[in-house]
Amino acid sequence: MNGLGTQPPGYAPGPPPARAEVPVLPSTAAARSELIRPLRGTVVEIGPGAGVNLHHFHRDVRWVGFEPDGGLHPAIRDEAARLGRQVDVRAGRAEELDLPDGGADAAVGTLVLCSVDDVTRSLAEVRRVLRPGGTYVFVEHVAAPRGTWTRRGQAVWSRLAPDGCQSDRETGLEILRAGFDDVRLERAAMPGPLGTRVPLILGRARR
Ligand SMILES: C[S@@+](CC[C@H](N)C(=O)[O-])C[C@H]1O[C@@H](n2cnc3c(N)ncnc32)[C@H](O)[C@@H]1O
Coiled-coil regions in this chain (predicted)? Predict the structure, then answer.
């Protein structure tokens, strides 16, 4: 994540840089922390899962999570109780956020746009609920360059994945096209199965 603040806005579409050029992260924990820690006010998280990001949020944040899998809500509440914080857990989907226009100061999504039914609509909703100047932060795994073995594997996995995870989505392009004012996007990778590397995008965008 170093250099996000100094990198010029924008992101070059087209094939990601060669394998050696992107940092390989042992995990996304440090990136999540760096992106989420500065957020304040009312913060919406889409697809929070079991609440794995909750410990990164500042104590004063009013957290509203939209997790469609109700089976995960107890885990979110348990994690919140462990951290001694209040949470507002809702069953909604990213495509239909039950919040007024401009009702949030920030929004967070990590490893979720691979799972939503409609990426374009989800990003439009995130943008709608942000106040002008509000920030959307993201960490997402994305498609590898076309023609690579990793991309072929992603295409197969996307058809088979029991949880519906579509790992071959061009999510970076979707974020760029979603109408945000200033997108700061970096590429990275994580070690994947069989020596592959899973391409990641991480960064922030402003409404
Ligand atoms: C791979 S998990 C990621 C969980 C967590 N954000 C993380 O970083 O580990 C994807 C999450 O997205 C949720 N999800 C699936 N479809 C969704 C939708 N349409 N809107 C919001 N969340 C969704 C799933 O229930 C699941 O909790």
Answer: none
